[in-house]
Specification:
91 residues; mainly alpha; two-stranded antiparallel sheet; 9% strand; globular
């Protein structure tokens, strides 16, 4: 079981994404010396990397391609994505 909670999956335009945390996203976008490449070279746990990807609003499809994604998180994200698709079809 992951040590961090999973962000819910939301639809942004036509893309299913993890619900971003606006503070985390702002910090990543505005920090002058830290970007995704810098973070990739740092020593973080797989769980922390998973949570960070979710907090910055990664797409579910993009998350699946990350080498550090946790299968349990991806499975639940796919399930939530399917629920969003089903909900959209009923309208």
């Amino acid at each position: 079981m992951p040590k961090h909670p999973m962000q819910p999956v939301v639809r942004v335009g036509k893309v299913h994404r993890f619900k971003e945390n606006k503070i985390v996203r702002l910090l990543l976008d505005t920090h002058p010396t830290v970007d995704m490449n810098t973070l990739a070279c740092m020593d973080f746990t797989r769980e922390d990397r998973n949570q960070f990807a979710q907090l910055i609003g990664y797409s579910v499809d993009g998350f699946a391609e990350l080498s550090y994604h946790l299968p349990t998180i991806l499975k639940e994200a796919d399930k939530q994505s399917e629920a969003l698709l089903s909900k959209g079809r009923k309208k």
